[in-house]
Specification:
single chain; 141 residues; mainly beta; Metal Binding Protein, Guanine Nucleotide Exchange Factor, Chain A; eight-stranded mixed β-sheet; 2 helices; 11 strands; 13% helix; 35% strand
Length: 141
């Protein structure tokens, strides 16, 4: 298991720690993540480990029946996508003090990726249907 790592928003008003499940990052190509991040959402799986500093000015947007997006209310930086029960948490890669520490290993919603860009890295890939099946399976457990 990895150690907790420091992370923060653009303006520094929100600081937090998160423990990556692995030193790996992935991207999401879904339409909501692309609009939210202005590109793809590059994230690290830190399920259940995100700890915000007391009084951090975080906001939340519930974009679906099961997911929510956490952001800084001061600068607007996107910080975490999580299931509403908080069990699955994906932390924005660039929020970490050292984003270069992570290896690019996966892409989700690959069937929603626009044709205008592509990554050269070889990664695992999941379609929208595969992602929904994964999360619906967690809900039913």
């Amino acid at each position: 298991m990895t150690q907790p790592m420091n992370a923060r928003c653009l303006c520094g008003a929100v600081t937090f720690t998160a423990t990556p499940k692995a030193m790996e990052m992935g991207v999401c190509h879904c339409g909501m993540c692309r609009r939210w991040s202005g590109g793809v959402f590059m994230a690290v799986d830190c399920s259940g480990s995100v700890r915000f500093a007391e009084g951090a000015p975080i906001g939340s947007y519930k974009g679906s029946a099961w997911g929510e997006r956490i952001f800084c209310r001061e600068c607007g930086a996107n910080l975490v996508w999580q299931t509403q029960n908080g069990e699955h948490q994906s932390v924005a890669l660039q929020a970490f003090d050292d984003p270069s520490a992570f290896k690019f290993t996966s892409q989700i919603f690959i069937d929603r990726k626009p044709e205008s860009y592509a990554f050269a890295n070889e990664t695992a890939m999941m379609t929208e249907a595969e992602v929904f099946a994964m999360f619906m399976g967690e809900e039913g457990q």
